[in-house]
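Suppose a colleague, Dr. K., hands you the sequence of a protein chain of 343 amino acids and asks what its three-dimensional shape might be. Before reaching for any lab equipment, you can write down a predicted structure in token form. Begin with the sequence itself:
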Amino acid sequence: MSLPAPPRYKYIGFWLSMPAIVGFLCYILYGERIFTDWKIWLVAFPLIYLMGYISWRLHYVYDYYVHTKYPSLRETRKRVILTLPINLLVMTPSVIIIFYTFHAFGILGYQLKENDLLYGFLVGLGVNIIFESLWEVMYIIEKYKESAAEKEMIEQMQLRQAFDQLKEKVNPHFLFNSFNTLSSLIFEDKQKAIIFLDELSKVYRYLLRNNESGLSTLRHEIQFIQSYAKLLSTRYGDGFRLMMEIDPACLDKEVPTLSLQLLVENAVKHNIISKENPLVVYIGTLEDSYLIIHNSLHLKMRSAIDSTGIGLSNIREKYKLLQRKDVLVEQSADDFIVQIPLL
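The predicted structure, expressed as tokens, is then:
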């Protein structure tokens, strides 16, 4: 496996630290001559820079090995301990090579003097400790970012999985009830059954197209519930009425997909519907924060209600997953009111 290129912050650290290192080493090599002899900057400066680059690349190879073997935040202490030998394995030999190379070839008249190696070692050690510490801090910061991103991704995956499970409950439930209605219509009025089947195909086409995401705009949900209401009107005639007053400013806000359908279906399932006791469903906006769904209440006998527990609990669960405001429910003797937050 080829070694990846050093990260950007290490390149920046190298280019920022090398001028200082080269300047100090040139001063140790030539003393006050660096201020008067331009040849030092023409010859010694680039030569030390080149040797420093080779040392830095070797340093990076060692660092890469350590960070690959001990990559996690829990292993920071091990990484710090293992970076200490870099001073002996890379930095110290690099300083020795620089001074002995200049001495062996007599570059610009240099001769090795007492304490030159010590001063050079101290310069390299000081700069190395500073930038090694900065690099480790940058690495830790990057790891924290990765950890936070992974945590967020896992949470989103869990949220999506939970949402998908809820959606899987909704569509079969809706289809099952629709087929029950169609079955009844076939025996009661075949012409109505044909109209109902045509509307059902339109509604289900919408479901397949728009139930892929967890949220839908209020505009789309309103369009859908109007189509769904036609199914109910076909089945119940004057026994079902839908009224809407929607603030246009709220149309682009979002609600969990199929929320309106679930609430209207819930009202149909639990109430007596007849021409004498029509089920009136009102959908409106409350300021710009809530959608209100209100229906008249003529409850069936409890024993006649075949409830699967889907519906209102489904919507509440979705808002719980989204970590948003809760759904508000109010019931009186004549009315049932649900308020769902607009997102």
